[in-house]
Design a protein that fits this description.
Two copies of one chain form a homodimer. Chain A has about 220 residues and is mostly helical. The C terminus of chain A is likely disordered. At the A-B interface, helix 4, helix 5, helix 6, helix 7 and helix 8 of A face helix 4, helix 5, helix 6, helix 7 and helix 8 of B. Chain A binds a DNA duplex (30 and 30 nucleotides) through helix 1 and helix 2.
Chain lengths: ~220, ~220
DNA sequence: ATTTTCGGCTAACATGTGTTAGCTGACTGG
DNA sequence: CCAGTCAGCTAACACATGTTAGCCGAAAAT
């Protein structure tokens, strides 16, 4: 009744997952990871893989889900820190980059398969990101009073910038990382300020900006 | 001297390039495109491929370069339209989405290999994007008076948002495309307005904790 | 006219892949 | 204790891939 059987099974299942994660790197994406390679690294026969996943794709989706869990934890942790009354943007960015730093391979997985070959992958990742975006939009809506559609647009932009800079952060040399964090913060502040400035003049959505872009000089 | 030999060679070279482009789609990325497949579609023997490219990677880099050329044309065309005095942002976005629409496969190539497995690819694409970003930064610097580092940050954010929304545009159903364009324009305007609002208070560049979004004042 | 160059071809190889069939032996449930 | 389950294994298959070796014939060079 202890389930010594199921226990062992779960154990090697974790071995497989871990093996897959270990093999991910800058030079190897999940897409060109072979079932046999994973099985080899997990220390099982290739055919045993099928006892746990019907597909490499199924494995991949599992990884994405696990990643979703980790991201929730991340957000929770970020919110906790924010209770301490520091700038949301700063804390969010730092937390996110910390996540990237600690889970480079899983982040690379998201990054790559987001625009990958498998629709199931793309959808799963889009779902995760949307989760992220919507929660942020709600938060913005409540704290800034921006109407929900605009808040959604803002958080969407914030997430996109953060995600993209996370990708650069991943490969940046150590001495540039802090600078990259600062850049990201500034860019997010662009967006936050710009969105805030539209609260009082939402009609500026129409193409009549006052910005000093009068005429240009060809370069 | 007519070079009837070189002429034929160039012709099949183009056949190869065209074959590669034809095989790209939502379901097939350049990364998992095989030399033999390309050769087959190009109507040549697999081994003949080597007469033109040493590698699939070399082919890929060629495609990226070609894409760069197309993008330059795009920018030129956008600038021309802008002489007609419409909002830069609107025209830029529309032009970019037009490019995505007309060159879905080559855009997908950029999108995917940007975070792909080959460093050469990543670098080549980063170079192309930087080209794009720097020219835009210069333009912003000259027209808005924003100091160059900030202009760089702004254009970087603009490009990232545009690029990302281009990816969504690619797979969006027809009835959502115009909406996506409008969303993109609004998001870019967030950034433009936000950056403009920092011209007079550049000290907010520093991530000092006073600049939280909860307490930002309208300009 | 003769030789060289060279783009394209066929044949073949060594290798890695996903997947099926079927055995074994330890755990499980009665 | 005994029959059944089932995770893991070996062996094997059919297949696709990258790449080498070497021939052929037309264009180019001499």
């Amino acid at each position: 009744m202890a389930g010594i059987r199921a226990q062992k099974k779960e154990k090697t299942r974790q071995m497989i997952i871990q093996a897959a994660l270990n093999q991910l790197s800058a030079e190897q994406s999940f897409a060109n990871l072979s079932l046999r390679e994973v099985a080899r690294e997990a220390g099982i026969a290739p055919t045993s893989f099928y006892r746990h996943f019907k597909d490499m794709e199924e494995l991949g989706l599992t990884l994405v889900d696990e990643c979703g869990v980790t991201l929730r934890q991340l957000m929770r942790s970020a919110r906790k820190k924010f209770d301490d009354d520091i700038s949301v943007i700063k804390v969010s960015v730092e937390t996110f980059m910390e996540f990237v730093e600690n889970n480079p391979n899983i982040f690379r997985l998201l990054l790559r398969e987001r625009s990958g070959t498998s629709k199931a992958f793309r959808d799963a990742i889009a779902r995760e990101v949307q989760h992220f975006t919507i929660e942020l939009a709600d938060y913005l809506h409540e704290t800034t009073g921006l109407d929900l559609p605009l808040a959604k647009l803002q958080s969407d932009a914030l997430v996109k910038i953060t995600f993209n800079n996370g990708a650069e952060y991943l490969d940046a040399p150590v001495e540039n990382k802090q600078e990259l964090i600062n850049s990201t913060i500034t860019q997010l502040r662009f967006i936050a300020n710009g969105a805030a400035s539209m609260i009082n003049k939402p009609e500026s959505k129409e193409p009549s900006p006052s910005g000093g872009m009068t005429e240009n000089e060809s370069s």
